[in-house]
Design goal:
single chain; 181 residues; alpha/beta; Rossmann fold; four-stranded parallel sheet; globular
Length: 181
């Protein structure tokens, strides 16, 4: 008898970083707060599965009113395939996402890339996840210049490094969320 694997639960936005301990939990939390109707999940390309999210990430989120907990999840092809839009912390994470599922290339962007593209080519408010993914893909094709759109990893830093990460993510989510509401 052959066992069939269950498909991953569909999500609107998949957020990806390395360990799923700092950056992607911060992005996930702030994105859900900005657009509560979204189904958002986060994962890491090299996540230590089951490890609790970094205490400093949780502390800086609590400072702005988000009492959350979570544990690291490893990125899988099923996660990528189930996501309408994928937002990553770094370009190398985007590369890993596309390596797992080449069909994700047109719907995967770094968070800062998405925010930058929306500043260049604004999207109508409330267009939704599918239309936003298509909008970002078209904006990237029309504006293919390379930029440093990576979010530095605060994992070995101080609480101030985590605050800086949170604040940069918050600014980028502020640019992306209106299209998703």
């Amino acid at each position: 008898m052959r066992l069939r694997r269950r498909a991953a639960e569909p999500v609107d936005v998949l957020v990806v970083c390395t360990g799923n301990l700092c950056r992607s939990p911060i992005i996930e939390t702030l994105l859900v707060a900005a657009a509560p109707s979204l189904r958002v999940r986060s994962a890491g390309t090299a996540a230590p599965v089951g490890r609790a999210w970094h205490p400093l990430a949780l502390a800086v989120l609590a400072e702005v009113g988000h009492e959350v907990t979570g544990e690291a999840r490893r990125l899988t092809k099923r996660d990528v395939s189930a996501a309408v839009l994928v937002l990553t912390a770094e370009g190398r994470h985007r590369g890993r996402v596309v390596q797992l599922d080449p069909t994700a290339e047109e719907r995967c962007f770094t968070l800062f890339e998405a925010a930058r593209l929306l500043q260049l080519v604004p999207a109508p408010p409330g267009i939704g996840v599918n239309a936003l993914a298509a909008h970002l893909g078209a904006a990237l094709r029309d504006n293919p210049l390379e930029h440093d759109d990576d979010l530095p990893d605060p994992i070995a830093g101080t609480i101030d490094d985590f605050r800086a990460c949170r604040d940069r993510v918050d600014a980028a989510v502020h640019d992306v969320a209106p299209a998703l509401r």
